[in-house]
């Protein structure tokens, strides 16, 4: 009896417990939903705030005021540039909207002769840039060209960590003698203080994977408008925006992604080999790349791009373990005997692109009707292998990376052929 009673007691207790549990569960569910909603609203708000959408500095009014001020300075002969006439007089360069504002950095979308362009400056106001005092003292045009070139070269050396020969400085220093030479020098000096401008203008002629600079007016420079990537987007790049609504079928999407992936590989190869020093990308994420209409991949954010000599300086730190040798997507190993990080980067651009970009496209269980199954499987495996940590020995590692690159290239071309064949 005692046992049965005990059991019954236990039973009713557990029934009550169950009811409470169910109630609790429902409450928890409500609570979780409520919490998720709060989180969503809050983070969207913060995101928009961060993007500067709510910031008073990114309103149309404020942006127009900034451009009006630029044009006033232009009319006074304080600054100049090849786009000033179109912006301030001919009205061929027209403000559209503010895209981004953060601590002075301004990104504006505009329309130039019917095509969209981006206007950028690290600081809003011309006078916030460092001023060349000697310009006030000089009256003649005869500031020695050589001296100006030297100043530009020093600035470039600071930013890139490279010494360039005089003739490759050309894109940065195209001064025309004549009227408004002070405005010309002052404008160029404000542009030279923007690292991104230095990268883009020096690499222009050598690389299709670098943002095109269209022109400048004062401290603002214009670059081509592209379709930027987003981590949350299913295909990373919104293909409809880049190449039009014909890219909606899953096959044409697969084709486009294959082309973009091949362009990524071309970029990796190019940044590794075609400059006098290797170019390391230390912040690889969808947002920092964009595509042109022809599906070329372009690096649009070079804040974390470093040529080999500067990369070595950055990596070579004191350390007590490997963790001290990480610099965003670039890392080396800690040599415990001398407590110093290796100067040579232990991973490479390809590995990180495989890990952070290609994995999105070739996930481990993609089963589409687009590419044949064996090929899909091979691609997944190749991407996985490519993203893996390489061998400790750095020359060995370089070899495996080269193999990875050529295997991926081969597989992507095979996919391209398959998709092409299915067309006919
Ligand atoms: N060429 C471009 N075409 C289209 N959109 C662009 C282009 N350049 C920038 N954008 C948009 O403007 C935003 C901000 O530009 P940018 O990448 O220069 O700033 P950021 O580097 O993200 O800023 P921060 O240096 O503060 O991190 C980008 O996230 C992108 O959405
Ligand atoms: C660059 O030009 C300056 C001035 O003309 C000259 O002094 C310097 O030697 C040149 N440097 C190189 C690397 O050619
Ligand atoms: C690194 O270590 C050396 C020797 O132990 C020391 O002299 C130097 O100041 C350290 N550098 C930094 C940046 O901590």
UniProtKB/TrEMBL annotation:
Q: Which residues cross the membrane?
A: 29-49
Membrane topology per the record? Single-pass type II membrane protein
Task: Indicate the segments forming the FAM69 N-terminal domain, all copies.
Answer: 19-176
User: Which GO CC annotations does the UniProt entry carry?
Assistant: endoplasmic reticulum membrane
- Tell me which UniProt keywords the record has, alphabetically: Disulfide bond, Endoplasmic reticulum, Membrane, Signal-anchor, Transmembrane, Transmembrane helix
Compartmental location: Endoplasmic reticulum membrane
Return the similarity comment.
Belongs to the DIPK family.
Q: What is this protein called?
A: Divergent protein kinase domain 1C
Species the sequence originates in: Pelusios castaneus (West African mud turtle)
User: Highest lineage ranks of the organism?
Assistant: Eukaryota, Metazoa, Chordata, Craniata, Vertebrata
């Amino acid at each position: 009896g005692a046992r049965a009673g005990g059991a019954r007691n236990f039973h009713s207790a557990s029934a009550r417990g169950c009811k409470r549990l169910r109630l609790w569960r429902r409450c928890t569910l409500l609570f979780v939903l409520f919490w998720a909603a709060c989180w969503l609203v809050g983070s969207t708000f913060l995101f928009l705030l961060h993007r500067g959408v709510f910031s008073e500095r990114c309103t149309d009014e404020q942006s127009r005021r900034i451009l009006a001020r630029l044009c006033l300075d232009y009319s006074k002969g304080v600054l100049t540039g090849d786009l000033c006439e179109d912006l301030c007089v001919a009205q061929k360069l027209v403000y559209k909207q503010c895209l981004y504002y953060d601590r002075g950095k301004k990104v504006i979308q505009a329309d130039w002769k019917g095509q969209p362009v981006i206007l950028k400056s690290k600081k809003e106001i011309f006078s916030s840039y460092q001023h060349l005092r000697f310009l006030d003292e000089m009256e003649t045009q005869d500031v020695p060209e050589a001296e100006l070139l030297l100043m530009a070269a020093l600035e470039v050396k600071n930013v890139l960590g490279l010494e360039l020969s005089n003739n490759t400085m050309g894109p940065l220093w195209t001064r025309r003698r004549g009227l408004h030479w002070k405005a010309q020098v002052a404008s160029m000096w404000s542009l030279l203080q923007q690292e991104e401008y230095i990268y883009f203008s020096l690499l222009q002629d050598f690389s299709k994977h670098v943002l095109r600079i269209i022109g400048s007016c004062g401290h603002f420079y214009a670059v081509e408008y592209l379709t930027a990537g987003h981590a949350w987007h299913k295909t990373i790049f919104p293909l409809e925006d880049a190449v039009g609504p014909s890219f909606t079928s899953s096959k044409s999407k697969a084709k486009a992604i294959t082309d973009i992936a091949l362009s990524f590989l071309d970029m990796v190869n190019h940044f590794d080999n075609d400059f006098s020093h290797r170019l390391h990308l230390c912040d690889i994420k969808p947002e920092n790349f964009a595509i042109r209409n022809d599906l070329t991949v372009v690096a649009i954010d070079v804040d974390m791009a470093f040529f080999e000599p500067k990369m070595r300086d950055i990596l070579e730190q004191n350390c007590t373990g490997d963790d001290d040798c990480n610099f965003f997507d670039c890392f080396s190993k800690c040599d415990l005997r001398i407590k110093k990080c290796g100067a040579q980067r232990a991973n490479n651009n390809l590995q990180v692109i495989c890990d952070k970009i290609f994995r999105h496209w070739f996930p481990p269980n993609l089963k589409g009707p687009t590419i044949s199954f064996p090929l899909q499987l091979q691609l997944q495996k190749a991407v996985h292998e490519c993203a893996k940590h390489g061998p400790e020995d750095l020359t060995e590692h370089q070899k495996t990376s080269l193999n990875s690159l050529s295997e991926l290239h081969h597989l992507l071309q095979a996919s391209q052929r398959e998709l092409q064949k299915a067309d006919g």
